[in-house]
């Protein structure tokens, strides 16, 4: 059983198609079929069965897929660790960051990191937290900075508390009164897309109080757009309270304070359990553990 055959097997699992896997691997389909034959001969078991145009794993194939994923991760991590040690570099960080932290934490944190370790290199992915966690599990990311979620696959280190609250422009009609929760349904909203955790939490909170979901007139995939749109309209929204204390919107946005619609969460560092972390990754984690709260506040 060799590494090449395992990578070929992994590609077939990923694409559920011999043809597509062969195209991605830039090899012929017969060569790929021969590889799987070798594995099945060594294991004395069938790994795939055909269903229509797809190939699907047999029960033994499912076991092999889980083991194969771990084996290849360990091989890749070993190559990376040994390569970085041999080259005497501080390492590369594949960093995934939730949108709120790109605004209030990341610039200050990376500035300090590069002062401490100017040889560090980074690749940065900004996205939704659940997508970033999937990337962490697939070994596409080393570190994710996002709301922390407990799980046996992750190691989590909380670094800063955050609250998400209902927000309006300073000249919104509800900003000049003491509104009720029911009155929030009288206005349209600007909200993140429906699959984002904060949106789902807000809708569930309204449902728990016997209210229909907030009516989104504008849905956005970029949270960076939201404060400007809120400030220039009479739309309500649901944002980190941190936005209310940061120029240029600190004078134009206000919180509509409701205990029921205040989401408490922790931002933190998430890594894959037992995953390899380069010296650069460890340096960033130490910086965030020591200075994360101050950097988030802009101190």
From TrEMBL:
MF terms (GO), sorted A to Z: DNA binding; DNA-binding transcription factor activity
Keywords from the named record: DNA-binding, Transcription, Transcription regulation
InterPro entries per UniProt: HTH-type_LysR_regulators, LysR_HTH_N, LysR_subst-bd, WH-like_DNA-bd_sf, WH_DNA-bd_sf
Top-level division of the source organism's lineage: Bacteria
PROSITE patterns assigned to the protein according to its UniProt record, in alphabetical order: HTH_LYSR (PS50931)
One GO CC term on file: cytosol
Domain called HTH lysR-type: residue spans: 1-58
Pfam family, one: HTH_1
Similarity section: Belongs to the LysR transcriptional regulatory family.
UniProt-listed PANTHER family: HTH-TYPE TRANSCRIPTIONAL REGULATOR YBHD (PTHR30419), NITROGEN ASSIMILATION TRANSCRIPTIONAL ACTIVATOR-RELATED (PTHR30419:SF8)
Name of the protein described by the UniProt record: DNA-binding transcriptional regulator, LysR family
Organism: Halomonas cupida
């Amino acid at each position: 059983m060799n590494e090449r055959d395992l990578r070929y097997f992994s590609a077939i699992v990923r694409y559920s198609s011999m043809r597509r896997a062969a195209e991605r691997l830039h090899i012929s389909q017969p060569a790929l079929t021969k590889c799987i034959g070798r594995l099945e001969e060594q294991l004395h078991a069938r790994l795939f069965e055909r269903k229509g145009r797809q190939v699907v794993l047999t029960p033994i194939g499912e076991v092999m897929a889980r083991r194969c994923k771990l084996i290849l991760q360990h091989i890749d991590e070993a190559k990376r660790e040994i390569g970085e040690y041999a080259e005497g570099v501080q390492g590369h960080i594949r960093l995934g960051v939730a949108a709120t932290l790109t605004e209030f934490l990341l610039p200050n944190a990376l500035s300090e990191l590069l002062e401490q370790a100017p040889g560090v290199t980074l690749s940065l992915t900004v996205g939704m937290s659940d997508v970033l966690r999937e990337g962490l599990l697939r070994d596409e990311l080393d570190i994710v900075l996002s709301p922390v979620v407990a799980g046996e696959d992750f190691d989590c280190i909380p670094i800063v508390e955050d609250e998400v609250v209902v927000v309006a422009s300073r000249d919104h009609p509800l900003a000049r009164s003491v509104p009720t929760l029911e009155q929030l349904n009288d206005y349209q909203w600007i909200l993140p897309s429906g699959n984002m955790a904060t949106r789902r939490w807000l809708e569930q909170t309204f449902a728990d109080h016997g209210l229909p979901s907030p009516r989104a007139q504008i849905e956005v995939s970029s949270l960076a757009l939201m404060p400007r749109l809120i400030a220039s309209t009479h739309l309500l929204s649901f944002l980190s309270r941190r936005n209310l204390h940061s120029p240029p919107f600190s004078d134009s946005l206000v919180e509509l304070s409701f205990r029921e619609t205040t989401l408490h969460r922790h931002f933190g560092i998430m890594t894959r359990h037992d995953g390899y972390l380069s010296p650069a990754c460890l340096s960033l984690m130490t910086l965030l553990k020591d200075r994360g709260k101050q950097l988030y506040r802009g101190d």
